[in-house]
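Translate structure to sequence.
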């Protein structure tokens, strides 16, 4: 007896192939913008303003006044295909707290809304030192997370 919905080529006792799955093709919500890797030799990097804070994310009020952003800023030149793992490693170079074995880094984009106020939206978390037993979002790239040039990156070191 063949398993229902089994692998292609599975046959019933009479030698006939199983009927196609009643589910049909997968239904996708709306397709997002197609993200292509960047040729880092030919593409100019973008300036990413990164703000770090131990214990939690900065509040929206911390970004309310242009020019008076939090003081714990790191400026990084990078590309849209930079992953959260790459950014984790860069943060670890400048923030000793991020080098702890048990450190968890939470990433959030900070961007203006249509009303001009800033919003802080969490987009992923990484472990300072990942392993197979603790999967994280390290493989996600900025471009796949809807990052737009000009957004800030807020990193909470937990």
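Result:
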């Amino acid at each position: 007896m063949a398993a229902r919905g089994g692998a292609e080529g599975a046959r019933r006792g009479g030698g006939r192939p199983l009927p196609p799955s009643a589910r049909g093709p997968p239904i996708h919500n709306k397709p997002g913008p197609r993200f292509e890797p960047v040729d880092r030799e030919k593409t100019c990097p973008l300036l990413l303003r990164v703000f770090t804070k131990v214990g939690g994310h900065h509040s929206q009020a911390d970004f309310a006044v242009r020019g008076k952003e939090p003081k714990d800023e790191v400026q990084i030149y990078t590309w849209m295909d930079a992953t959260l793992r790459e950014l984790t490693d860069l943060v670890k170079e400048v923030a000793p707290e991020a080098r702890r074995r048990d450190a968890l880094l939470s990433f959030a984009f900070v961007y203006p809304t249509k009303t001009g106020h800033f919003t802080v939206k969490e987009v992923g978390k990484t472990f300072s030192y990942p392993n197979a037993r603790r999967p994280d979002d390290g493989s996600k790239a900025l471009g796949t997370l809807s990052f737009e040039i000009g957004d800030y990156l807020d990193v909470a070191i937990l």
